[in-house]
Write a structure and sequence with these properties.
single chain; alpha/beta; Alpha-D-Glucose-1,6-Bisphosphate, Chain A, domain 3; five-stranded mixed β-sheet; about 15% strand; binds 1,6-di-O-phosphono-alpha-D-glucopyranose
Length: about 675
């Protein structure tokens, strides 16, 4: 075997403990990255991505999709017509949809890092591949064991070696990273892993012709946001499947430039989509003189790079003025430090660098915080006295739901020519299944409000020109679970209170020729990210909806419901995975004594407080969520109660119970 093919020479050393303990969690692999601890994990993720890309290329070849083949050929011809030649793009070559590797630890501190794997449709990795990823990483402790595990897995997912001989699609893997100092190195290691996998398998199958000598079928997109990479992959799939994509990109003579073109179009396309939405809602909106100003905390992360490219055109074309702060992407040690969406939401504190000072008497401004990789958004109102009113994912979901119901309950044009002629054909015959997906952390007041809306719709309390079915669904924490649920509906709105979320429109249903999806919702589908939750896209969507309603942020904060008081806390325990939960994280099943203690704390608190004549609110709705984080080495505790004091007192008592059941003594005793 030639040296370049020896896994043992390529596999970077990683402490065995990291390999044993790390798992594909809520959002990929994540841990402290100091001392090269994550090097081996990044390389292994490259192996996984390489294998997934080969599997997709093979599946596409075997599925013999006539549309894709015709379109791909047509597209190649189109390139040739545009450019006079197809240098670097042989006409018999068909590219498969791409898979992606994003190096980021998102909201975590700068010393952490991680890997999010992106599937070929731009969404989250399919669950069976999470299992393969875990097994590859666990086997990496021993390179020879890894080699034979990979052989077995390749047989399982690709079939016998000669299956690849018939592959007619070219596998493709895209890489990007956030601004962390360890990210470029980890991205390179992941690329090495992917190249090893492709080279090894394609050489064995005698298909080295499927390897691009220049790029090795692996393209590094550099520093960008997580949603940007998801979007490029999603757009690439649209392009490959249908020969079109909604991004404005210009064909370039080199194939990797096509991909770079998609990335470059990401920000400008968001501005285009915002303009279209405002114009369809009310043509006078985009021309409003008064501008809507937002102070955007970029968490000193990659979101600043995208925003820098669009703020001027956004202001000129829509009147939405984004003023960025905490946008020092070079100061890697400042990433998420006392700023960013997670900080603002969990601590209800204004981010560092907030532009108002005590001298700016009684002024309050609209703010928005992204997280380190800009897939979350938290809005807030901040004043000169340092007070912070958080408008979280629950309120964003409510605003979007309000808009969706508004559009579906009226007669709207659904074709641009109808709008131009001022026609609003009837929506009578349409039936829309709308889903609102949330998690255990969602505020009880928001869930109650959504159920009230559902009942209103069911009982005819909302005048409707079409039939709306609203479903309110709880699922496990983590975007991957919410997204899966949301895709079951014609229109699926999903948000976590921490600011992750989007509104998804059924692909087939958007393209159905007879679909009468109102034009504003078609524009919404262009703006809201259809691959993954996107902090920047959501900010533009919310800002557009506020502009349309002529609401201030304060109006929005008070428009729908009053959230129940809540507290988030977190604690370290020796082994957080000792906690098991059920009912979408709403109940602890292990250790059983912990659940009993939590029930006891709630009951005791209820008795004390209801015995007190002075109490405010109802004590029937008190709740506690205790679960191990999938992104940090902590146990998360969330409490909801009628007052902040109650919530704090309960959180304290629950922390003590967690310590008793999972603290150091308990672990030593059970060991
Ligand atoms: C990730 C996930 C989110 C999840 C968050 C916290 O976000 O994508 O769905 O809510 O982690 O998860 P946990 O409570 O398990 O730590 P991000 O922004 O960190 O990628």
């Amino acid at each position: 075997m030639k040296e370049r093919e020896r896994l043992i020479d390529l596999l970077p050393a990683t402490t065995p403990l990291v390999l044993q303990r790390i798992r594909y969690g809520t959002a990929g692999f994540r841990s402290d990255s100091r001392g090269h601890q994550l090097d081996g994990v990044a390389f292994c993720c490259g192996l996984v991505a390489g294998l997934r890309a080969l599997e997709r290329a093979l599946t596409q070849s075997e599925t013999k999709m006539p549309v894709a083949e015709t379109v791909a050929t047509t597209w190649t011809e189109r390139c040739a017509a545009n450019l006079g030649e197809t240098e670097g793009y042989p006409s018999n070559e068909r590219r498969s949809s791409a898979v992606g590797v994003m190096i980021t630890a998102s909201h975590n501190p700068p010393e952490d890092n991680g890997v999010k794997l992106i599937d070929y449709d731009g969404g989250m990795l399919e669950p069976s591949w999470e299992t393969y990823a875990n097994q590859i990483v666990q086997n990496a402790y021993h390179p020879s064991a890894l080699e034979s595990y990979l052989d077995g897995l390749a047989q399982q997912v690709l079939g016998p070696t000669d299956a690849l001989c018939r592959c007619t699609y070219v596998p493709l893997i895209l890489f990007a990273h956030d601004t962390r100092s360890t990210s470029p190195r980890l991205a390179n290691l992941a690329m090495q892993g992917a190249r090893y996998m492709l080279l090894n398998r394609l050489e064995a199958a005698g298909r080295l012709d499927l390897l691009d000598s220049e790029s090795g079928n692996t393209i590094l997109l550099g520093t960008t946001t997580t949603p940007a990479l998801h979007t490029v992959i999603w757009q690439w799939k649209q392009l490959m499947d249908q020969g079109w994509c909604s991004f404005r990109h210009r064909p370039d003579e080199r194939f990797p430039n096509w991909i770079q073109g998609l990335l470059a179009s990401y920000g400008p396309s968001l501005v285009d989509a915002t303009v279209s939405l405002l114009e369809v809602l009310d043509p006078s909106l985009a021309k409003l003189d008064s501008s809507q100003e937002w102070f955007v905390d970029c968490a000193n992360g990659a979101g600043a790079i995208v925003l820098r490219g669009i703020t001027a055109s956004l202001r000129d074309r829509t009147g939405i003025h984004l003023v960025c702060f905490n946008d020092d992407v070079a100061a890697t040690e400042l990433l998420n430090r006392r700023c960013g969406a997670d900080w603002v939401q969990k601590t209800t504190t204004l981010p560092e660098g907030w532009p108002l000072h005590a001298s700016d008497e009684s002024l309050s401004l609209g703010g928005a915080s992204l997280d380190g990789d800009a897939d979350r958004l938290i809005c807030f109102l901040g004043d000169s006295l340092g007070r912070c009113t958080v408008l979280d994912g629950d309120l964003m979901a409510t605003m979007v739901l309000d808009f969706v119901i508004y559009c579906l309950s009226r007669d709207w044009p659904s074709r641009p020519w109808e709008a131009r002629r001022g026609l609003s054909p009837s929506n009578d015959q349409q039936r829309w299944r709308v889903g609102l997906v949330h998690t255990a952390y969602t505020n009880g007041a928001a869930v109650a409000y959504w159920h009230r809306k559902r009942k209103e719709i069911e009982t005819g309390g909302i005048e409707q020109r079409s039939r709306i079915e609203l479903h309110v669904v709880c699922t496990w924490t983590g975007v991957k679970h919410l997204e899966r649920e949301a895709r079951r509906f014609d229109i699926g709105i999903y948000f976590e209170p921490n600011g992750h979320g989007t509104v998804l429109f059924q692909d087939a249903f958007l393209r159905r020729s007879g679909s009468r999806l109102p034009l504003p919702l078609q524009c919404c589908a262009r703006l809201a990210n259809q691959a993954v939750g996107d902090g920047i896209a959501n900010l533009l969507l919310i800002a557009s909806l506020l502009q349309w309603k002529r609401w201030s942020i304060a109006d929005w904060a008070g428009a729908f419901y009053t959230p129940l008081a809540s507290v988030y806390s977190a604690m370290h325990v020796p082994d957080r995975h000792a906690i098991k939960t059920t009912d979408f994280d709403r109940r602890v099943t292990y250790p059983p004594a912990l659940e009993a203690s939590i029930r006891g704390v709630l009951e005791q608190h209820r008795q004390i407080r209801t015995g007190n004549e002075q109490h405010e609110g109802s004590f029937d709705n008190m709740r506690v969520v205790v679960r191990p984080s999938g992104t940090e080495d902590i146990v998360r505790i969330y409490v909801e109660a009628p007052t902040k004091e109650d919530a704090l007192a309960i959180a304290d008592a629950v922390s003590t119970a967690v310590m008793e059941h999972l603290g150091p003594q308990q672990t030593l005793a059970s060991a």
